[in-house]
Amino acid sequence: MIGKRNLRYGSVSLVITVTVIVFIILANAVLTFLFKRYPLNIDLTENRVFEISAGTREYLASLNQDVTIYVMNTEAGFVSTFPNDYFVQANEVIRKYSQHSSRIRLEYIDLMRNPVFSSRYPQEQIQINDVIVDSGGKYRVIYPTALFNIISTEYGGIVASSRAEQAMTSALINVTSDKEYLAAVITGHGEQDIYSFLELLILNNYEITGINLLTGDIPPETSILILADPSRDLSPEELRKIDTFLETGDNRVFFYVASVLQPELPNLDIFLAEWGIAVEPGIVFETDNNRLISPSQFVALVDYAEDTYSKNMIQRNLQPLIPQARPLRVVYEEFRYRYVTTLLKFSPASGIRPSNAPSDWTPSFFHLTGNTPALLLSTQSRQDANRNLFQTHVLVLGSILALEESTLGNPYIANSEYFLDLLGSLTDRKDSINILDKIVGFAELRANYSQVITLTIFFAGLLPLAVLTAGIVVWLRRRHK
Hints:
Number of domains: 3
Radius of gyration: 30 Å
Strand content: 15-25%
Distance between the termini: 12 Å
Largest sheet: 9 strands, mixed
CATH superfamily of the largest domain: Class I glutamine amidotransferase (GATase) domain
CATH topology of the largest domain: Rossmann fold
């Protein structure tokens, strides 16, 4: 009887032990899966630099196509790339996409172990740390430098902020959308290079093309036509093509950027005057020291003259910087079906230095003009026979330096976000998502690789083994009682 009782108790003990072990193994597997898909961590950083924005989450919730994100490295290798803190942040942002949408799959590809993977994209030079967003063969390659806002200095490039979410969301929209927005850049007149601004447009899902108006026509799918600081005048024929572009479409923008180094351009001046805008000679100076970010009186922050296109920037208390600007003037506020709006303006304490001023010129009270426009918008509205409303726009900026790398890349200045918001509104973009740069300055609490291995061995190996051993010992002791 005693032996049977011991056997019965031992069997029960064995069943309990096995059940506990199976439970621990299953719980470990389930928690591991959940942790990979829904990491059990909390972003306590001030600006939630490890999270994605509400706009991106809403877009992911509506996603109806399968997408695969390939990171060209092991996860450990990717996050250990210098600068480590920014790659750690970028990696966490990338992981959020698959966590917030079952349509998105994330894979880390070790090119050292799987070099043939790059043959899937024969037109690309795939490198370590590249990120590929692919949906049904339509793909976009994100280079590591596109994940960050890098500013050039005399000591080399420095990372000012993270653009990981902008790059990822833009690529995602690009590969899942049938509509593309084209920005055409006019060439052939000694125009200035605006590479940083075009790179910003590309990052936000615009296609870029160059167009010589003397030898070609403006592509009909163009949304934005850009003329950046030409040093030679446009011909009447070229201006007629611009007129036709604006007269025959909807939500189209001609964006003209001037500079203080330009010669006189009479044909272009006549064209702009017809749209109610004049670009005056001289250079705007600022006497309000609170608006100056350098000793120069010609590098100043400006005010918003309206709150329709600038509301996001006003809420964030950011101002645009318009350095070395030519003064603009409103020729008329409204004429027939066109009306002119001042978007940005200098302070009441600003003035205009004449273009013929001597080298020892100094500003005086008599030179103050106050509230000189820095950015003007002329909008033309018309209706067709069915009373459908069409709008096109001429946008004029007085400073080419407002679109240079150091200005666009400064996260404390509104230029990049403001111009993206503005152009998105004027072209009636429905898929535009306003995503802010994130400054990664944090003290992180995270396990290194050896600590991860130690914890894995303990929870996945030692702890279950200890429970198993304890169960066997209990069973043996009870069996021999």
